[in-house]
Amino acid sequence: MFGSVGGVFSGFSRRFTTAVVSLNSDAINLLHHVRLLCSLGHLQEALKLFYSITPPPPLIHSHHTYAALFHACARRSSLPQGQALHRHMLLHNSNPDFYLFLINHIVNMYAKCGSLDYARQLFDEMPERNIVSWTALVSGYAQHGRPDECFKVFREMLVWHRPTEFAFASVISACGGDGDCGRQVHASCGGADEAWSVYESMEFPNLVSWNSMIAGFQVCGYGNRALELFSQMHFSGIRFDRATLCLIIKTGFISEIEVATALVKAYSSLGGEVSDCYKIFLELDGRQDVVSWTAIIAAYAEQYPEEAILLFRQFLRECLAPDRHMFSIVLKACAGLATERHALAVQSHVLKVGFEDDTVLANALIHACARCGSIALSKQAFDTMISRDTVSWNSMLKAYAMHGQGKEALQLFSQMDVQPDGATFVALLSACSHAGMVEEGTKIFETMSNNHGIVPQLDHYACMADMLGRAGQISEAKELIDKMPMEPDSVVWSALLGGCRKHGETKLAKLAAAKLKELDPNNSLGYVLMSNIFSTDGRFNEAGLIRKEMEGKTVRKEPGLSWIEIGNHVHEFASGGQQRPEREAIFSELEKLVRRLKDFGYVPQMSLALHDIEDEQKEEQLYYHSEKLALVFALMNLGNRCYSGNIIKIMKNIRICVDCHNFMKLVSELVDMEIVVRDSNRFHHFKAKVCSCNDYW
């Protein structure tokens, strides 16, 4: 990467030797590239570029560049480089004190790098100071564990300036557990009430401001007010962090089980780390009840379902009685696993405690079994329900949809004896889309408003765009989007883009990809699908440009991962088999399997492999996709599978590729087993060289 960047920079030193009249524009270019290098973490290259300018540009044109470099030195704690840069500036400029913001950067650099005595000396010599100057010194003392000096400078600052939230947070953190120090801070600011007045006067308080105020109440002994402020944060939807959490724990209210449970729920719902939630849970030290256990299991259920199941088992060992809500959360966790055995085990507990007629739990069981690949168990759970609500019917319709059983979904809908809602029609349209039932799906979409009073929303339009696109009716899908009564979102455009990829429609694909990037710039889907479209069409240069664009915008493609359950453990596989101790053994068995499959007619689909490698390497690249590695590992451990029957179940986080799809079909016949793959879109049931999707996915 840096070879090309260096070529761009090489002309700067030459240009700075030309007429003085061009200095300003060249200085702006230099500043831009120095900032770019610093942002990429290449401080040494940035300094080398700056020092190469001869003669050095005067400070009037270079003060922003100096500031950027001092800032980078501070961030990386690079004191020797910062000192050398400071000497360079003094050597080539006679009056740097004229630029207050630049001197602030220098003071900050020395303070951040731990050279606090020299930072203080520079600070004392400054002819003029502002709030930034004071805050740099206060935060430096705080970060390097010198609370006495921190508090002293903070008190001096109050004579001249009202502290910023950052300065306030710094001095509070320097006080640590010293309540007296913290109270002195607030006394210096006029007490907690005065601090509250300062806080309330802020038009847009940030997370530092919230944490500072919570800290203020905490050190002044106002734990109840700290907790009230935290509650206000939560109900305002403000995402808090570990610092907030630690402050609330310090109030002492964490020992209250209701507070701890509320914290776990709030922190997990706002996207906090589950490990932090678990630490709060452990603070209760043996006093956990069913509500707190449910909260921590719910925190793990979505991202870490296996751990959620382990926590549930631990709960049962504590001889506590689960309630309906806990069972529903645990069944939700079961839906994230590869096999249905956990859901059936939970169901047996449900029957033991007498909740067999509970509609909510039956709905959760339908969903869990369907997500684990067993549509038969879902139907069994649905058929045995005494009472069904709209969610029950929707759950079964969704089950049929994700397994591509469109006809069964329509038949079930005709029997529905409760009022359908918007989710009902999302499930129906999705089922029609996966089954290629365009005529039936279009009729449902056109009549849902008149016949059932359901006005189509974004989800329904996305399903229609997906349905038409899959069927090759790309222009009809685009026409539908153009007539939408609301602005199409990223899901709608990604549905159209998926149809364009399937049928090689490049022109509309470019439009859909551009819209997708605009609405969801960090989503790799638009880039990946466009790259695939160009590769399939043999336009490898354009595909390469798309990949470079991704790199330039730091958009990362989601890595392909697959999971399979062997024994009592879930095994994860990444493409290439990295991190697997059995990697060499898996590769050896995979090579044997590929040789046998080629006799069956297997031909690797190499159109989507990287074009700038040899065909032999392309084949190897395809062989090592995560789902192939998971399949081979399952075949190596047939005796240790945790489920009965002649079946292998694999989960995958992204869409299965054409080559892996063909591979699974052939293996299912070769080993005479059913292979079930759940990818990001749907289920594929491979049996006797045929897939349940009929190659329509």
Provide keyphrases for this structure.
single chain; mainly alpha; 4% strand
The number of distinct β-strands equals: 6
Largest sheet features? 6 strands, mixed
Strand content of the residues, in percent?
under 5%
The shape is globular
Strand order of the largest sheet: 2-1-3-4-5-6
Secondary structural class:
mainly alpha
- Report the total helices: 38
Amino-to-carboxy terminus distance: 38 Å
- Segments where pLDDT lies below 50 for 5+ residues? 1-23, 176-180, 186-191, 610-618
Radius of gyration: 31 Å
Helix content: 55-70%
Instruction: Give the overall pLDDT as a whole number.
Output: 80
Structural overview:
It contains 38 helices and six strands. It is mostly helical and 697 residues long. A six-stranded mixed sheet has the order 2-1-3-4-5-6, covered by helices on one side. The longest helix is centred in the N-terminal third of the chain and has 17 residues, at 23-39. Mean pLDDT is 80; it is low at 1-23, 176-180, 186-191 and 610-618.
Question: Helix and strand layout, with pairings?
Answer:
Layout: H1 2-9, H2 12-15, H3 23-39, H4 43-51, H5 59-75, H6 79-92, H7 100-112, H8 116-125, H9 131-143, H10 147-160, H11 165-175, H12 179-188, H13 191-200, H14 207-219, H15 223-235, H16 242-250, H17 257-269, H18 274-283, H19 290-301, H20 305-317, H21 324-334, H22 341-352, H23 359-371, H24 375-383, H25 390-402, H26 406-414, H27 422-435, H28 438-452, H29 458-470, H30 474-482, H31 490-503, H32 506-519, H33 525-536, H34 540-552, E1 561-566, E2 569-574, H35 583-599, H36 615-623, H37 626-636, E3 647-652, H38 658-670, E4 674-678, E5 683-687, E6 690-691
Helix pairs in contact: 3-4, 3-5, 4-5, 5-6, 5-7, 7-8, 7-9, 8-9, 9-10, 9-11, 10-11, 11-12, 11-14, 12-13, 13-14, 14-15, 14-16, 15-16, 17-18, 17-19, 18-19, 19-20, 19-21, 20-21, 21-22, 21-23, 22-23, 23-24, 23-25, 24-25, 25-26, 25-27, 26-27, 27-28, 27-29, 28-29, 29-30, 29-31, 30-31, 31-32, ...
